[in-house]
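Model it.
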Amino acid sequence: MARPRRTVTTDQLADTLLGVAAALSSKLSHVERLAALCRSTVDLLGCDRSSVFLRGETGYRGRANHGNPPDIVPLFDALDIPFDHPGIVEMAASRSYLLANDPARSPLIGPELARRFRIRSIVVAPALDAGELIGFLTAEYNEQPGSFSPLESSLVMGFAGLVAMTAAAERDEQGRRRGEQELAAREAWFRTLTERSYDVISVADTAGRWIYVSPAIKALGYDPGEVVGKAWVELVHPDDRAAATAGYARVLAQGSGGAEFRLRHRNGSWRWIESFGRNYLDDPIVRGVVANSRDVTERKQLRAALRESEERFRNFAEASDAVIWITSPSYQQVLYVSPAYERVWGRSREKLSGEPLTWMDAVHPEDRPRVLATRERIVEGGTAHELYRIVRPDGSIRWIRDVGFAIRDASGRMVEVGGIAHDVSDLVAAEEALRGSADRLKSLSQRLLHVQEEERRTIARELVDQLGQLLTALRLSVEGLHGRVGDELSLNIDESLALLDRILGQVRNLSLELRPSILDDLGLVAALHWQLKRIAEEAGFTPQFAADPVPERLAAEVETACFRVAREALTNAARHAGARRVSLELRRRPDAVEMVIRDDGAGFDVVAAAGQAVAGASLGLLAMRERVELLGGTFSIRSAPDRGTEVRASLPAAAAATAKTR
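Modeled.
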């Protein structure tokens, strides 16, 4: 059943307006005033509910209402209507009320809000402040069917104007309160600033007499009360008074200005002061020149030291043969490059400063990717060394050794990239020549060893084949004299035969020492085994031998080097170590042959022995190492006093060679 329309009389309207005026003029809070407007709207129109929404940070939020049932209150408090809501946008544009007697179909309300808030009819009137939408007032029917007439809607519009007035008044009141709070805060801030600042804040009159001086003046040894009333120029160094007085005159004439001068400390020393003043003589409150002064003595000393340091750096850089350079971290700006750049690169520093990329353009194309990668490593925070070539404008090539590094500030942030570049072309050429000389020397050494072994083989063969045969023939001839001479000569013949036997034995031993035929005839494994047993029999130690099968003959140089190294190591163990047990192992690796000789003898200091070998006192150790390394192998000795010795040699298994080619 529809609610009968209520007629608003003039008296009712007058009474309502009087009540509203009383409420607005009372000491009610802002929210209570808005609630009174909502209550007056319901009383005047006879509707069920009225609400006020005001602009917030994210949308329009409910600030006051009258007539909301308890179950609607939480929904009302949580409602946040966005600024871009279609109904809000329409109302802001039209600056007039919106009426929805069928709210479920209205774009302003919609079925969801109509259902949740049980709205049957609603009028929404804008609260405008200087034409700006700051909120709106609603009047609703929700308990029983009803509708609003144009007149009633106009009345809601009028109450919405009162909402705007109330909001504006509250805003002004808040502004006033904020102004008072800000003023109090600024006063407190100024007191804190002046009373606790390290800078001296002062106020002086036109004659330069101090009216006020902050407590920071104590840093100069004075109390504020001592200097107030005095002319500040009296404390200025005599040599600086003219400049300081001229600066003060500029402040009086132009309104502001600054100066640096020395001020006398209470202890008699002089401190550099940086002062900036502003003329407030016409200000009715200040009536003086306000100056902010600070002690900059340490800063000036640091600046002087910095200038001196920069001068030393510049003198060093300009006298150096190296190219000293500094760039931005991106390498897009050259901050400094020393004069040596023009001599080494053959290009001008001015062009490099204007075109930083020409530095990289000069790098040899083959080296450029490597240099770029090095630059990236420096940017990542490291120090990088690089050797590269540059191409000078005349086409000549120079070798550059460059050391780059990151330059950081006190916080560790990289602010610049620096480096030192040396022209090492002569050094590179010398190294190339040295490497060539070393290669030639290595080839010569290999040739000498080869010739030596060939001579050993020839001499050994001659000793056995010729001298041995002659001595054997001589022995047979001497032996044939028996029976032809008397007993006395027979005794001499026996002594001669014994002497010939000794000579033949020594010839055979000498032949074996020079070049045992077993190495050429039977190969490395047999020769090593024979040599170990032979030396063990002479020295009296227990031998141990182990060898991997060698399916094919190794290169002659490899077999000879292994045999000679083994002979030297075994001889050392026999002569110097006093070993009881000596082992020899020969192992075949995929691309190498490894020989290890161990003894349990006295051992020795390897470092000291190596030094003696270099000095020429122990050539055996040096010869072993050189034989192995000449063939591209590795050689090592591990030993210590009373700990025995291990000799290890690893040689590349070069192409096999048959016995016939030897």
